[in-house]
Design a protein that fits this description.
Layout: E1 12-21, E2 26-33, E3 39-46, E4 50-57, E5 60-68, E6 73-77, E7 80-82, H1 89-101, E8 103-104, E9 108-115, E10 124-130, E11 134-135, E12 146-151, H2 153-162, H3 168-183
Parallel strand pairs: 4-10
Antiparallel strand pairs: 1-2, 2-3, 4-5, 4-7, 5-6, 5-12, 8-11, 9-10
GO molecular function: hydrolase activity
Protein name: NUDIX hydrolase
Domain Nudix hydrolase: 45-180
Length: 186
């Protein structure tokens, strides 16, 4: 087996300029040397990472509906949230599931970790599946307003066609659930 060269087209960073430091993200502009020797700039969004949970209760997926300001509309999504500094993704997934839906579970299984927009951001989302859930009380953040719903796979696919589900993490979760229903494994 031939080893993969992950640095084949490496862009060497010559300098970094910090443009913005927010509560969640930061923006920097890197000056880089390209593989051909030319110089270019790259605008990069730095993000602490996030978790998302495909939570199944009685063959229905838990989703939350909330307003997404960048889109200026409501979205239906799986429970998710950003990682706190130094937080283990598994712990964060359990926390977000309970905070947003009120459900808890003993075990979560990692389905996949993926980058949301590697062309300009380093955000990674760790997608977990939770089954055998226990109903409790939600504990929303003070700036969080949402409704919790449980939907079938057919409803999820309909919401995707309607554009009510249109974010990558939820679409990935719906397809993972569909594969699970067909094959018995994630």
């Amino acid at each position: 087996m031939t080893p993969i060269n992950h640095k084949k087209f490496e862009e060497v960073t010559l300098s970094t300029e910090s443009i913005f430091q927010g509560k969640i993200i930061s923006l920097q502009v890197d000056t880089v040397r390209l593989p051909n020797g030319n110089i270019a700039t790259r605008e990069i969004v730095k993000h602490p990472g996030a978790v998302a949970v495909l939570a199944i209760v009685d063959d229905r997926m838990l989703v939350v509906e909330q307003y997404r300001k960048p889109l200026e509309r409501n979205q239906i999504e799986i429970p998710a949230g950003k990682l706190d500094a130094g937080e283990d993704p598994l712990d964060a997934a359990k926390r977000e599931l309970e905070e947003e839906t009120g459900y808890s579970c003993d075990t979560l299984k990692l389905i996949s970790s993926f980058y949301t927009s590697p062309g300009f951001a380093d955000e990674i989302i760790h997608l977990y599946v939770a089954e055998q859930l226990i109903k409790g009380e939600a504990h929303l953040d003070e700036d969080e307003f949402l409704d919790v719903e449980s939907i079938t796979l057919d409803q999820a696919q309909q919401y995707m066609r309607e554009g009510r589900i249109s974010d990558a993490k939820t679409i990935t979760a719906v397809y993972a659930w569909q594969v699970y229903k067909l094959t018995g494994s994630f």
